[in-house]
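dumping this here before i forget
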Amino acid sequence: MKTLREDKLAKIVIDLEELKKKKLDESFLAMFGHWVKNIVGRMFGDTGIPVSVKGNPSDVRAFAQAVGGEARYIQTAKDYGLDDPRTYMSKATLERAVHDFETKTGIKWPFK
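structure:
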């Protein structure tokens, strides 16, 4: 059941095949970064995430792993601090997921 607040959230639709065709410039990266920031931010909130990711299954899986890696890294850093070994491990896992996403899709990840 959707709450009133969820109904008002704009659905994010990310079509990875279309993004591959676009020229990767600064405005594109800003837009893509905004989408990913919203998705990760909503993962920490109490609302659903109205998002749809389209593309071939391998690309979608790589995107999901990179977004999940961002969320896990942020949570680990919040829970244990930046100098904790668990945070370093989480950061390394995130970097592998981002590299995999960029290699599979040719799309630059908006955060480094």
